[in-house]
Amino acid sequence: MSEGLKIGSHVFSGFSYYKVGLGSTSSFFDIKLFDPINSVEYFPFSGSKIARSAGVFSYLFFKNYKQVIMKMPSGWQLKLSPYSSGVLGIVSNPAFFLFNFKKAGFSRNLGIRPSVRGVAKNPCDHPHGGGEGRGSPPVAQVSPWGRLCKGTPTKNKKRDRLDRRLNKSSFRHLKLYNF
Question: What domains, with CATH codes, occur in the chain?
Fold first, then answer.
């Protein structure tokens, strides 16, 4: 919901003959440059993924029929399809960071699960668990399921070599014609 909407405000979704206003969802074709937008899609019909946090917005600063360049809240610039959509306005509740969590377990009630270090667990719960003191993982760090997770190459060299060999042979005929 965009900040500044009141009860009885007219909100439109999609193409509209009326003036596209605050809280309306429309494609980037209908949105003017430098208007604040939130809840933006990466691809058309993919669902909103960008600028959804409280008090956040992004804006378009370049637009043509092929692409739209949007400046994100982080300062990054994204090239998007002009058929993607966004909601006009700034996300409401900008003072959310001032909210006081009343008691222990409040975030658990919100559905946020605890993130406990593997070192602090028992040996039956995690490969890093158990032991005396803090020198617990004596070997490479692994996930709870035993897979290496810190700086380990995940590429399958055998399959990669095979892919390169196949691609090399399939594109050999193109070199003859100098494409």
Answer: 25-94 (2.30.30.30)
